[in-house]
Amino acid sequence: MRVLSVLLVVVVSAGMAGCMGDRNTSSSDVLEIKGSDTLVQLVSDMAEVYMNEHPYADISVTGGGSGTGIAALINGEVDIADSSRQIKEEEIKMASVNGIEPCEFIIARDGLSIIVNPSNPVEKLTLEEVGAIYRGEITNWKEVGGDDLKITLYGRQSTSGTYVFMRDHVVKADYSPNMLNMEGNKAVVDGVKVDRGGIGYVGIGYLTDEIKTIALATRDGTGYVSPLDEQAVEDGTYPLTRPLYQYTNGMPEVDSIAYSFLKFELSDEGVEIVRNAGYYPPNPEDRMNNDEKFELIER
Question: What residue spans define the domains of the chain?
Answer without folding.
Answer: 30-109+244-297, 111-235
